[in-house]
């Protein structure tokens, strides 16, 4: 989550920016959160890679696992947000702004954790969303 969240934020800002007032959090503050996450991308990559390998993105796990780190990271950077199919309608941009603003007081780590736990819980019952099994031995 920490690795690709900046790309998701960029897509949200791109989609909703013109549909919100210039003073909205999405237009004034959300970009700073994405920049903060980008600074942590290198540190987040090993765990992200492991997650992408486990999920497999519909490919043979061995094929994905054997890609060089550089090639795999490029693949993720170029296609994962597209694969997610983020489809935000203009009439929902105000809610997206409100949610983003509500998360603003949380640290970046807390925000990533909350989003990851929420998506993982939602994915467990959804056959179209890939999710790694929860490891009860590890926190979060």
What is the fold's blueprint, element by element?
Elements lengths: L4 H12 L8 H4 L1 H10 L1 H15 L5 H5 L3 H16 L8 H11 L4 H17 L16
Helix pairs in contact: 1-3
The averaged pLDDT comes out at 81
Low-confidence stretches: none
Helix/strand/pairing class, anyone? mainly alpha
Largest sheet, if any?
none
* Span between termini: 13 Å
Number of discrete helical segments: 8
Give the overall shape: globular
Order of helices and strands: HHHHHHHH
Rg, rounded, reads 16 Å
Please provide the count of β strands.
Answer: 0
Strand proportion? under 5%
- The proportion of residues forming helix, as a percent range, comes to 55-70%
Write a concise synopsis of the structure shown:
The protein is 64% helix and 0% strand.
What does this structure look like?
With 140 residues, this protein is mainly alpha-helical. It has helices at 5-16, 25-28, 30-39, 41-55, 61-65, 69-84, 93-103, 108-124. The mean pLDDT is 81.
Summarize this structure as a short list of keywords or feature phrases.
about 65% helix, about 0% strand, about 140 residues, 8 helices, single chain, mainly alpha
